[in-house]
C-alpha cells in the first residue's frame, strides 16, 4: 500500500510543479522598450540607445526584439528616412553566426527569425523611399552571407529603386516643405504643367473687403483659358467643382476647378453629293495648293465634361475662400465673370452643420431649414 502511494506521488507531483513554475515565469515576463523613457526624440538620442544596447551584451541577446522595437519608434524620432540609422540597426546583428555553411542551410532558411527581421527592416526602408548603398550591402553580406534572403532583397532594391526614383517627370525635393502654401504651389504646378504658358499666382483673400475667411489662394490660369472664359455665353453658369486630391509623396493637397461650357462644334450643312458647285481641292502641303485649318481647334483645356477655365487651391478649402477666388479672378483679367453666374458644388463641412444643431429646441423648424441649406 505504501509503495502504491509513493508511486502515485512520484507520477503526479513533478508535472504539477513544473506547470506551476512555467505559469509563474510567464506572468513575470515584461517587454521592455528602451525608447519610451528617452526624454528627447531626435536622431542623436536614437543612436545613443542603439549603442547602449550593443555595449550591454557582447552576445547581443534579444537583438531581434530590440530591432523591431526600434523600427516601430523611428517615426517618433523622425529618423524613418535616414540611411545611417538603418545601418546602425543592421550593425546590431551578430556577425558570422547566421551565415549558412552548406546548401541545405542556405535553401531551408538558416535562422529564419533573424532573416525575417532583416527583411522587415529593408521593407520599411523601401516604404520610406530609402535606397541602400554598397556599405549596407557589405554589412548584410557579413551577417547573412551571399546566399541569405536579406542580401537578395537588398540587391533587388539596389536595382529597382533608382529606376523608380527618377521615373516621374514631376521632380520633387527630397524633403517636402512643411509650409502648406509651398505645398499648394508645387501641387498646382504639377496639375497645370500640361500648358507651358500657365501662370501660377498667389493671392490673399484680404484683398476682397467682403471676405470672411482670411487665407491665401494659389490660382493658375493661362492666356488660352482667359480667351475661352471670354467666349463663354453669359446665360450659361460656370461651375466650381471639388475638392479633388493630388498626392505629393505622403502629403495630400486639395484643389478646385472652374468649369465652363464646351464649345459647340461647327455644323456643315452642305450636301456632299451636290456636284453643282465643286470646291477647289485643299491640296498637298509642299506640292500644290494650301491647307486649311479646322474652323475650331480644340485645346487641352476642353475636356468631355467641360472646359477647364482655372485651377486653384486655398488654405481652408471653404466656400468663402472660393468665392474670394472668383472675385480675384474677375479683378485680374477676367471681367466677364461679373456677368456670368457661378455655381458652387462644394459640400458644406460638418462643423457648420454641428453649429446649427446646437440651436435651442423651440427653433426646430429654422434649424432644419439651415441644415438643408448648408447641405445643398
TrEMBL record:
Its main location: cytoplasm. Pfam families: ECSIT_C (PF14784), ECSIT_N (PF06239). It is found in: Cytoplasm; Mitochondrion; Nucleus. GO terms for biological process: cell surface receptor protein serine/threonine kinase signaling pathway; innate immune response. Residues 222-347 form the ECSIT C-terminal domain. InterPro entries: ECIST_C, ECSIT, ECSIT_N, TPR-like_helical_dom_sf. Keywords: Cytoplasm, Immunity, Innate immunity, Mitochondrion, Nucleus, Transit peptide. Transmembrane segments: none annotated. One of its GO terms (cellular component) is mitochondrion. Gene3D superfamilies: Tetratricopeptide repeat domain. Belongs to the ECSIT family. This is Evolutionarily conserved signaling intermediate in Toll pathway, mitochondrial. It comes from Plutella xylostella (Diamondback moth).
Amino acid at each position: 500500500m505504501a509503495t502504491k502511494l509513493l508511486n502515485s506521488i512520484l507520477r503526479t507531483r513533478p508535472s504539477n510543479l513544473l506547470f506551476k513554475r512555467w505559469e509563474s515565469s510567464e506572468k513575470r515576463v515584461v517587454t521592455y522598450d528602451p525608447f519610451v523613457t528617452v526624454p528627447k526624440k531626435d536622431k542623436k538620442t536614437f543612436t545613443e540607445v542603439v549603442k547602449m544596447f550593443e555595449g550591454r551584451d557582447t552576445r547581443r541577446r534579444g537583438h531581434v526584439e530590440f530591432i523591431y522595437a526600434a523600427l516601430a519608434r523611428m517615426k517618433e524620432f523622425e529618423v524613418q528616412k535616414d540611411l545611417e540609422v538603418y545601418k546602425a540597426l543592421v550593425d546590431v546583428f551578430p556577425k558570422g553566426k547566421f551565415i549558412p555553411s552548406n546548401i541545405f542551410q542556405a535553401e531551408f532558411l538558416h535562422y529564419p527569425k533573424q532573416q525575417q527581421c532583416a527583411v522587415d527592416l529593408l521593407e520599411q526602408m523601401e516604404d520610406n523611399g530609402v535606397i541602400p548603398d554598397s556599405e549596407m550591402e557589405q554589412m548584410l553580406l557579413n551577417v547573412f552571407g551571399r546566399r541569405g534572403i536579406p542580401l537578395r532583397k537588398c540587391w533587388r532594391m539596389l536595382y529597382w529603386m533608382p529606376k523608380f526614383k527618377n521615373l516621374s517627370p514631376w521632380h520633387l525635393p527630397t524633403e517636402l516643405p512643411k509650409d502648406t502654401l509651398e505645398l499648394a504651389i508645387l501641387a498646382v504646378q504639377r496639375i497645370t504643367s500640361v500648358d507651358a504658358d500657365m501662370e501660377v499666382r498667389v493671392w490673399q483673400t484680404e484683398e476682397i473687403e467682403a471676405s470672411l475667411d482670411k487665407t491665401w489662394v494659389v490660382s493658375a490660369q493661362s492666356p488660352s483659358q482667359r480667351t475661352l472664359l471670354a467666349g463663354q455665353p453669359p446665360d450659361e453658369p460656370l461651375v466650381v467643382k471639388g475638392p479633388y486630391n493630388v498626392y505629393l509623396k505622403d502629403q495630400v493637397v486639395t484643389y478646385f476647378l472652374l468649369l465652363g461650357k464646351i464649345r459647340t462644334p461647327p455644323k456643315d450643312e452642305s450636301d456632299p453629293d451636290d456636284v453643282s458647285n465643286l470646291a477647289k481641292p485643299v491640296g498637298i502641303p509642299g506640292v500644290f495648293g494650301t491647307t486649311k485649318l479646322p474652323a475650331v481647334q480644340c485645346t487641352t483645356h476642353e475636356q468631355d465634361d467641360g472646359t477647364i477655365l482655372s485651377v486653384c487651391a486655398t488654405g481652408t478649402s471653404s466656400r468663402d475662400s472660393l468665392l474670394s477666388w472668383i472675385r480675384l479672378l474677375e479683378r485680374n483679367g477676367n471681367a466677364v465673370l461679373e456677368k456670368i453666374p457661378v455655381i458652387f458644388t462644394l459640400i458644406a463641412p460638418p462643423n457648420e452643420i454641428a453649429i446649427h444643431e446646437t440651436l435651442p429646441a423651440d427653433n426646430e423648424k429654422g434649424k432644419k431649414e439651415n441644415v438643408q441649406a448648408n447641405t445643398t
